[in-house]
Amino acid sequence: MEGTHVSTDVYNDRYGDDYVYRSTESYYIDTVGCIPVALLGIVGNLVSLLVWNSQTTYSATILLFKYLAVWDTAYLVSFIPVSFVYDDDPGGPLAISLDAFWYLTKLESVHTTLLIAFTRWLAVHRPVHVHTGSLLTRRHVVVSCLVVLVWCLAISAVFMTFNLILGTSNTWVLELIIINIVGLAVPVLPLVVFNLLTIKKIRSSTSTTSSSEQRLPTSRTSNHSLTITIMSMSVLSVVAYTIGKTVMDVYWLRHWSESGSSFTTLQSLTELLQVVNSSVNIIFYFSFSRKFRSSFKNCFVRRGHAGRARREVLQSDDRNDFNSSCAMSRL
């Protein structure tokens, strides 16, 4: 199967008549890799959202986990129509609008992960203020999410504007790449800084643990598990966006006017990394968070046992009623 050639005049003007929109490799990466992983990720994010919603006590980190699950789900859901619409009409207004929304969901995923890492760092460095409620209140988290949303909407609007301009001009390629790097690659770098500072603070405070924390080793273990969870999410974001996105954009800058077969394959690989990044958070929760595992059991396992026991009681009542009715009929 040869690459699919785009017949849209916009893309012919932008890249040339021989531009290959989707190579054989990128087609199989999308259909065999990205879409199945996205479907599994949607289920995983919805399950994690349901589990975290079962928590009755307020936690800034858990609130951001739920917020991240919403945007990751939106990203994975939008990935499938974006792929099909681009096949039919890559330069049409619907494709550009979907691409802008898809870009917004990626921006929100990256920046929310950064908020989670910052929240964890603040909780480790100012535990008393967080515990007393002077820091990381619900209002603080909501305002932070709104600020991030406005910032991401602004970048998405600029991205869509440059995408429309590129339809009739070839002079804005570098600017579009800079927008990509500023929006997606650069914000991931502070994740490394906040996680390193968090680890340093935890190690330095281990030797000076208070007597109350010594009597509560499970709390300390839970905090360390939460740190490992956030670190795992941060590392995968760095791989998917800072490394993957930068490599793809640099390659695009050097080869954007060529046929594009190698570029589309690299682009699909980068998108596969991003889909995996938005799909595997539930694995980190299961692996490192005892609170998530216990909440999952309460939501599904114990609820399933309770439902089964209720059905058995109803069935036994029906059998008793049937036996009593038979006895009455004999009389």
UniProtKB/TrEMBL annotation:
<dbReference type="GO" id="GO:0016020">
    <property type="term" value="C:membrane"/>
</dbReference>
<keyword id="KW-0812">Transmembrane</keyword>
<keyword id="KW-0472">Membrane</keyword>
<feature type="transmembrane region" description="Helical">
    <location>
        <begin position="225"/>
        <end position="244"/>
    </location>
</feature>
<feature type="transmembrane region" description="Helical">
    <location>
        <begin position="264"/>
        <end position="288"/>
    </location>
</feature>
<feature type="domain" description="G-protein coupled receptors family 1 profile">
    <location>
        <begin position="44"/>
        <end position="285"/>
    </location>
</feature>
<feature type="transmembrane region" description="Helical">
    <location>
        <begin position="101"/>
        <end position="121"/>
    </location>
</feature>
<protein>
    <recommendedName>
        <fullName>G-protein coupled receptors family 1 profile domain-containing protein</fullName>
    </recommendedName>
</protein>
<dbReference type="InterPro" id="IPR052954">
    <property type="entry name" value="GPCR-Ligand_Int"/>
</dbReference>
<feature type="transmembrane region" description="Helical">
    <location>
        <begin position="27"/>
        <end position="52"/>
    </location>
</feature>
<keyword id="KW-1133">Transmembrane helix</keyword>
<feature type="transmembrane region" description="Helical">
    <location>
        <begin position="64"/>
        <end position="86"/>
    </location>
</feature>
<dbReference type="InterPro" id="IPR017452">
    <property type="entry name" value="GPCR_Rhodpsn_7TM"/>
</dbReference>
<feature type="transmembrane region" description="Helical">
    <location>
        <begin position="172"/>
        <end position="197"/>
    </location>
</feature>
<feature type="transmembrane region" description="Helical">
    <location>
        <begin position="141"/>
        <end position="166"/>
    </location>
</feature>
